[in-house]
Amino acid sequence: MLDQRLIAATLRLILRPSRPNLTREEVFNWFQARLNRPPEAYDIYKTAKEFYQLGAFSRAQLCLQQYVTLPGATLPGRHLLGYCYLNLGESERALREFKKCVKEGYHDDWQLVVELTIEIEAKRRLESDMTSSRLMTTDAV
After folding, report:
1. What is the extent of the structural domain holding 16?
2. Which of 16, 27, 52, 114 can pair with 60 through a Cys bridge, CB separation 3.0 to 4.6 Å?
3. pLDDT by residue (tens digit) across 82-114?
4. pTM to 2 decimals?
């Protein structure tokens, strides 16, 4: 398990209210200062996974968004990013991540891709029907 001091320090960094989203450079600089070396992809993934397991999905998302851009990033990191988006109610972003996983060979995500596609299309149809219904009601008045 990750050093609890590293998790606590990461929480303080990411929870700063004045900075809801950190840049890639800020994340890497922070990790480098804490680790006394440049961070490796695994350092960021491990921290993200800890956040996810704690239910801190937005914090895990922040780390994973940086992680997936790194050389050496693995598909489980992108997969976990998809689940972060799902837990944050961002189905369309989750779908994009799961599609990338499938395209890159992580075929276990096929079912998620199908289910999310159906769910998102049903939501769009419902919203469209509601909009049409409102327009017809307005026209009748």
Report:
1. 1-73
2. 52
3. 999 999 999 999 999 999 999 999 888 899 899
4. 0.75
